[in-house]
Each structure stands twice: as C-alpha cells, then as structure tokens.
C-alpha cells in the first residue's frame, strides 16, 4: 500500500526549536518524530511513501535517504511554493505513481495516533467511498473544524471552528485520510488548495460519498511545545506505543547514550538526548532535553524543552521555557513561563517572565 505524509509546514508554534530543525525531525524519545510515523505506517504493510516537503527539505532527505533502513521506499516531493494540504498531496501522488484502483493513505505530518489503519481502509472499501476521514473526539471542538457524522458513518457537514457551546458534535478531523486517487484530479494544479476548506466540502456539495471513522483511542498533534512534551511522556509512560521503541524499562526517565547524570534529581518524566551532562544537585522534571546539552550543578529545569548543544549554567532556573539550539544560559539566570530563546542566544544576568506568587528560588509559580 502507498501513502503520502504532509510534512511541508514551518512549525511556527514550535519555534525556536524549528528555526533549525523541521517539525518532522524534532526528536521523540531520541528518534525523529517522522521516523515514528513511518514505523507506524510500515507496521500496517505500507511499503511506499511520498513525503510532501516544503520547509528545510534537505534535513529530512539527508536523514532518511531512500528509506531502506525503515523497510520501505521513500519518494520526495518538494513544493516550489506553498500548495496547501490538497495541493501538496496532488503533487506528491504524481511523483508516487498511484494506481486508479488502490486506495491512497494521506496523513498530516504532525499527528500521532494508534488508529488502526487496516480498519479505516476496510471501512473505506466496504462503503465504496470517495474519501474516508479518521475522526477523533475532543473536549473543546471550538478550536477545530468539526465534522457532522451520520449513524451510518457518512459525513454530512464540515463546520469550521464553531462558537463555544454551539458545535453539533465533538468530532474533529484527525488528519488521516483514505482517498480514491481520482479525487485528487479535482484539485487545481500549482494552486494553494486545502482538503479541509476546499476539496472535502466540494465533494459533499457534488454528492460524493465521504465517510468517517470515529476513533476514541490515542491522538495528539505535536504542534506546540506542551503537546510535543506530552507525546514524549505518553510514550514513556506506556499510554501509547511506537514500533520504534518496543521496550521501555524505566517509565519516568529515558536517556540516550553517553550521558553523565550522577547526583542529579529527576522530578517527573524526563527525556535526555545523547551525550548530555547534568551536574550534581541539578533538578530536572517534565522536560525534554536534546543531544549534547549541559545542565550545570544546582540548576533547575522544569516543564521545558532545550535544543541541541545548549548550556544551562550552575544555579540557573528554567520553568515552562523553550530554548533553541546552542543557547548559553548563564549561572543563576532565571527564565520563567513563556520564555523563548532563539538559536545561539546568550543570556546572562537576566530574569524573564518572573511570576511573583511562586515559591521557587526565582519566585516562579
């Protein structure tokens, strides 16, 4: 079976991490996020995948190559200009070479789920649908486009970001589609065109059969630092599994090779990259730390993400912060909620976003 993954976005909500790393390549348990998604596809027998690229495509191509290490064939489709979800899929399908009689999987490149692909493909085939969309329930559908689904599994309407309390359903588009490849011929070439606001509503208006699979299992998008950390911790805790990391012994602490952490304290789940050094008396909790990071003695890193090669000085405090690659945080510096430091930034003697009501060493809440 063949699939397309849409990984062309800039990942603006994950900045500063994505200034230097494509969103698809941010590490999740020390493997690129995209590697987990590809392993998910191969576990269901997908053997050919086109990656629809836009932002920093060379980083992705250099890492994955032709795909042999993952047991599949990778095709790269690079947009010269932004084409939207449907436009990117049309371009990638042309590169992939899709037969007219085989369903095509299309996935957004920023979601992680345990939705069974064989089940959604089976629903699609049994219904004879033009499109079948994976759907998931959420607590607050006002932040999403919601989908009205009939009891027979047929989608009747798409409602974009309804006002709070007015949504007729809490089901949203999960970013997983099974398509009859012929529907991509309806997408205008070389034009920005979306599935969500363009192709799918147009198919409904034309009377095409658009179906949905309501899935109440695991689903998350990694578009924000909070959700990115959450995916790491959910994999660590066993709330969801990845074929890339089948065995996890410690459900609170995960570290790459050659880390030195003697005398550090772990408070809640922690993921460390390779070659990290965490000094004696340092406290780290609910944080994801990338490769080659140094956290000095007595420092405190809580609910934060730290990019590659960065250094946190002795006694420094980071809470709810996101630090890009190769940043220097000086000794005793306090960085509070909402702090973002871009790649290569140097911070010394500065307090960011201080919260006066808290009880920590810098007064953070």
Q: How would you describe this protein?
A:
The protein has 365 residues and is of the alpha/beta class. The protein folds into two domains: 224 residues, Alpha-Beta Complex (Spore Coat Polysaccharide Biosynthesis Protein SpsA, Chain A); 101 residues, UDP N-Acetylglucosamine Acyltransferase, domain 1 (3 Solenoid), CATH 2.160.10. It contains six helices and 30 strands. The strands form seven sheets. A seven-stranded mixed β-sheet has the order 5-4-1-6-11-8-12, with helices on both faces. Strand 2 and strand 3 form a beta hairpin. Helix 3 crosses helix 5. It is elongated, with a radius of gyration of 22 Å. About 2% of the residues have low confidence.
Structural class: alpha/beta
Helix content: 10-25%
Look at the structure and give the CATH class of the largest domain. Alpha Beta
Multimeric state: single chain
The CATH architecture designation of the largest domain is: Alpha-Beta Complex
The figure for the number of domains is 2
Strand content: 25-35%
Low-confidence stretches: 354-359
* Major sheet: 7 strands, mixed
Compute the separation of the termini in Å.
Answer: 50 Å
Please tell me how large the radius of gyration is.
22 Å
Major beta sheet, strand line-up: 5-4-1-6-11-8-12
Q: How many DSSP E strands?
A: 30
What is the fourth-level CATH superfamily of the largest domain? Spore Coat Polysaccharide Biosynthesis Protein SpsA, Chain A
At the fold tier of CATH, the topology name of the largest domain is Spore Coat Polysaccharide Biosynthesis Protein SpsA, Chain A
What is the average of the pLDDT values?
90
The shape, in one word, is elongated
In DSSP terms, counting alpha (H) and pi (I) runs of 4 or more, how many helices? 6
